[in-house]
């Protein structure tokens, strides 16, 4: 293997990939990044067996082939190179790098020992606008569980594909986030994937350089999902299990609602939460006469009282929520006004923006607290 | 169809058992028991390789050794197949950090394994988890995996090996299909040692000293002065010679093997005492030291071996290793003095 490339290109690709690598891995080759030279490009790949990140950049290929080099060391070395050209000669045990008047030899491991990615699953391929995909990730993954005890399924985010529609759902049992959008190019039938939320966060961070994201399932049983935008792809192992029927959590009808200024409401809740203290951050919302009264109290801190002007429909209501959960949801609503719908003080409330995101619909469901 | 291999010495019973199974009749979890060094982990690794081998086949046992999956098993203990997880020794619960990725610590932990088993297979086939010489650091570690022992996700095969099945929680042991691995014959150990590059003389010596165990045979052949066998032998001859050993050989890892070495030395002492030079020795490399020991009375030999049996039973519990070695020392000292008086 032999190629010549720009130092900036390779430093950027190896730097991004090395973030996936774990220095303390029990499998030595997973400490390395894989460099593959073919068709005028160098593909840099790193994996921790849960998440695989691959980034390609143009290069002059002298001899196609592959080599693996220690990720952290190689990344640090490349980060300290001046702008210019770099020549790399790779063998199964050594990667020799020439840059200006310096020569470095890095110990390598044979590239054929690097875990290969499985082949694509037939018929499970769709494309989606990159912005809509990132909006969906941003709108949902925060609601996924971070408690191992609740199981890996709830720590993941559900991607439900049906024809030309995609629904993303995340829940930790107390709150639920749902985002619905259309695909640029859908699939024939219906598929469900439970994707680790950490992987979606990485995808959102790394797949920003293109207008469209191509998503393909890999493996005989669609075990992994590959998301590709331009020259960057993220492949993730899917969670094994069945996602709960989330539609059961969303009330079919509501009998009252309020429309409130999103930012003003966030401000009130944040101040009231300070007083609510450790009582599950409980704040009470009382809706009456087109006014929302936010109250909180604790023996230690005192009492909080805030009034907000709202548009109210239906009867008066008093309901209590965890302020932190409510603020987190409102923080993901870009619309100036937010609608909250209720069905009594003990039923879940639905929260949605008045003005939806471009190309996507958000819906949040939050369980109330007993007062 | 390519030629299939299954290079494991001995283990005839388990080979016959798995030879009769198909993928459809395979259970979800197995417990391999037997003395240390009889090939339990080797068998489990080869079984994992067979289960993940991509070559078309109808049997459970056997791999072609050349497919992409088999190449990731090259290196034995350092297999790199992404759907084969191996942990040997004490398993800790691990840190609670839901945001981190896999392999955040240098050793796999119970939480890592729970997380791994919650994910789908990397390659699309089965996933195999080998817990070798299993010992749970805490009940929390055992309980974290209990659900998976009880009902692993579809396509997961659990292989557990131990030389002390009594130490396992009954709630875990009852969920595993137990297969006993017999000790290896001297000729089998000799063949394995030949394969490892030992010459005829050393292979024969190792086979004699190994007492059915490859691990013990290799340890006995180690010319390292600090090998466990050398340490235990020094300690033994010090104690029965009336001296006070300067160092202890006993810790959690060495206790059971060390007691086996002591038993073989007492056995040789008994044999030499009863039959003189005609008595055959296992520890031929210590024949001079054994020859210099006082004659051991038959009743004392029986009592000494009985005490060592007791010590081995104790060693399988959580009792302090130093306390076990002290009990053995007191027993050997008393019997040695009484034999001297005889």
In a few lines, what is going on in this structure?
Chain A is an alpha+beta fold and 371 residues long. Chain A is built from seven helices and 26 strands. Chain B is built from 14 helices and five strands.
3D architecture notes:
The complex is a heterodimer of chains A (371) and B (342). Chain A has seven helices and 26 strands. Chain A has a nine-stranded antiparallel β-sheet. Chain A has helices at residues 7-18, 71-79, 130-140, 152-155, 197-206, 262-276, 323-331; strands spanning 2-6, 32-38, 41-47, 51-58, 60-63, 65-70, 85-90, 94-99, 102-107, 120-129, 156-162, 165-171, 175-182, 190-196, 212-218, 224-229, 232-237, 256-261, 282-288, 291-298, 302-309, 311-313, 317-322, 337-342, 349-353, 360-366. With 371 residues, chain A is an alpha+beta fold. Helices cover 19% and strands 46% of the residues of chain A. In chain A, 44% of the residues are buried. The radius of gyration of chain A is 25 Å and the shape is elongated. Chain B is α/β, with parallel strands linked by helices and 342 residues long. Chain B has three domains: 12-180, P-loop containing nucleotide triphosphate hydrolases (Rossmann fold), CATH 3.40.50; 185-222; 224-339, Zinc Finger, Delta Prime, domain 3. Chain B is built from 14 helices and five strands. Chain B has helices at 12-19, 40-52, 68-71, 110-118, 139-150, 170-173, 186-195, 200-210, 214-221, 228-240, 255-275, 287-291, 298-315, 321-341, and strands spanning 29-33, 84-91, 127-136, 156-162, 177-180. Chain B has a five-stranded parallel β-sheet with strand order 2-3-4-1-5, with helices on both faces. In chain B, strand 2, helix 4 (110-118) and strand 3 form a beta-alpha-beta unit. In chain B, helix 4 (110-118) runs parallel beside helix 5 (139-150) and helix 13 runs antiparallel to helix 14. Mean pLDDT of chain B is 83; it is low at 98-104. At the A-B interface, helix 4 of A face helix 4 of B.
